[in-house]
Each structure stands twice: as structure tokens, then as C-alpha cells.
Amino acid sequence: PLLACGAELKNTFCLAKGNRAFLSHHIGDLENYETLRSFTGGIEHFKRLFDIEPEAVAYDLHPRYLSTAYALEQAGLVQIGVQHHHAHVVSCMAEHRLDGPVIGVAFDGTGYGSDSTLWGGEFLIADRVGFRRAGHLRYAPLPGGERAIREPWRMAASWLFQVYGDEMDGIRIPFVDRLRGRPWRAVRQMIERSINCPVTSSVGRLFDAVSSLAGVCDEARYEAQAAIDLEMVAEESAAGYYEFEIQDEDPLVLGVDRTIRGIVEDLEAGESAGRISAKFHSTLAGAIVGMCQRIRADSGISTVVLSGGVFQNALLLRGALEQLTAGGFEVVAPSRVPANDGGIALGQAVIAGARLAEGLGSEPASRRAPGR
User: Fold this and answer.
1) Three-class secondary structure of residue 167 per DSSP
2) CA gyration radius, the chain
3) Which one of 76, 90, 282, 343 is separated from 164 by 20 to 30 angstroms, measured CA to CA?
4) Which residues contact 316 (CB under 8 A, 6 or more apart)?
5) What number of other Cβ atoms are within 10 A of residue 329's Cβ?
6) 314-348: pLDDT as tens digits
7) Residue 270: how many CA atoms within 13 Å on its side-chain side?
8) CA distances for 149 relative to 13, 132, 152, 360, angstroms
9) Tens of pLDDT along 251-289?
């Protein structure tokens, strides 16, 4: 019997015993005392309701999550840390009763990586016990940390500076004109000096960048607004896509410098935000297929699991499903379990149970990584 404490945002918890797992109701974001009290009270209620007294506790690796702090305070329980994106993939595997190994594509805003950086554009070879990072989106600076999530223009400027360097000031697009009214000089110094500027492989933050570049959303009033607005303006009948590159490293790196350059060229030519959005979505779906084809060629695995909050984007999900299926992959995506962080707790519970069954306990998942 075990307890999985879930993530920080859109929190749920999960109690499991035998072959049954009980995923809780939506708790919310564990950012204040009231939601934390709802979290702890809910756990006690579920323990009584389902007659489960946990002997182990699973938690996210992020050291500042309140759910993680709660887990580490549970004296006498076996403590099992679970990587965020591995939990995303396994939550969907559990829903579809897959044991693996699979190619897990986990796209979200940010999650704590096993290398202590911020992940969010991940291609994993995973089973219920462990995973191997087979590929990821190229890292980009996140200027201002969490502030860049609320101000998507920061990610747009970050990607532009990464691709064009000093030449970006000469680009003739409306976004560069809008930068003159913002603290771009200070943000640029943050990037150049790596001050309060962690790097991230997040696809969610790439959506933010493209949304701001296209003039759709420079400042977000609610979570994921930039990405949502970008999806909503897409002219789905628009044809075409941008170039991308797959860098032959270990793990593979999905590079989107050519994508950014293509978007800038379209903006210089006066292309609409709707057509740019449609082409970007098609590009990202194609990039998923390209990465999965490379991983299949190396591993022989042809089952793909799509999970993470970015796959709440219906346009991207549909495009990825269609293109992967046409490429000969068996593809599954979340349906009954949330694709976003609301499903993390189920993935944690299944991973912890599988590791305990193999006698691994609290050992790092990399000790038993599929494909090694």
C-alpha cells in the first residue's frame, strides 16, 4: 500500500493497494495554506474511506513542491522520488494497460529534470520502472524564471536572441518594435550573464515565444493563455510548415532555430498570425514524428505515448496522432486520466509500486532504465 503525492499545480493525490489505485478529486495549486490543508485532509479521508494505510510514499523530484515536502515528512515510510515526465508517461500507460517499453513524448510547461534543469519537451524510452531520456527540445534561457511564464514576450526575446544574437535588433517585425517599450536591455543582460535565467527544454515556453512573436499574446493573465490564444487563432486550412533539425547527440536534440527564422521571415512578409500558428502546429507535429522515427530506428520500439499539459492542445494532438499513425506507430493519449499535472499522482503510484515489486525501493530510476 502506498501514497503518491502528485505535483504542485493542479494537484491530485493517489492511494494504491494491490491492483487498485484511487486517484483523488482536484485539489488545485498547492501555493497556500488553504489548499495544503485540503490536500492533507483529503489524504486522511481517502485513507479511512478505502482502508489503506500507506507503507511507502512517492513524490516529485522538485525540492520546493509542498507535496514533496509533505512526502518527506512522513516518517517510517519508504520514500520514492519520481521524475515528473516519467510520471506523465506512465499515467497514460496505466490508463491503457501498457507495461512498456514505449516512446514517451512528454510536453508541458516545466518539470524538474533528473539533471536539475527544467524539462518540458521530452522524448523518453520508458517502462513502469525506469526511463532513459532519448531526446529533448533544445534548451533556451528562461529570463526571470517564473516571471517569463507570466510575460511570454521574454521567451520570444530569448529565442530571438539565441537564434540571431546581436542581429536581432535589426529584424523588421512588429515584435522588435514592441520591445522598445519593455526592459529588453535588462533581460538581455540576464541572459548574457546567466543571472536569474535558468535554461529549459519546455515546449510550453516555446508556444509562449511563438505566440508573442506572432503578436497574439505578450502578457498572460491566466495560465497557458499564450498557447491557448495561439491555438485559437490558427487557420487550420492553411498549408505548410517550417523547417526543424534533429541534432545527432545522446540524447537527441530537437532544434527549432530554422523554425524561428521561418516565422520571422513570414512576419517580415506580412503573414497573418493565423497562418503562422497553423504552420507552427504542423511543424511541431512533424518534429514529434521525426524524433520518434529516429528513436524507433535505434530501439525498435513502435508504441508512442503522448502526455503532458501541452497535449490538451487539440490541434497539436490531432496532428501528432494522424502523422504518427501514418508513420506506422501505435499511439495512445490520455482520455480518462488528465494529460496535465492532474494525472501525475497516478503515474507516481504505478512507478513506485513497480519499483518496490522489483526490490528497487528508493533507488534512482536510472539504475533500471529500459534500453540500457
Assistant:
1) helix
2) 21
3) 282
4) 231, 281, 284, 285, 310
5) 20
6) 999 999 999 999 999 999 999 999 999 999 999 99
7) 0
8) 25, 28, 6, 37
9) 999 999 999 999 999 999 999 999 999 999 999 999 999
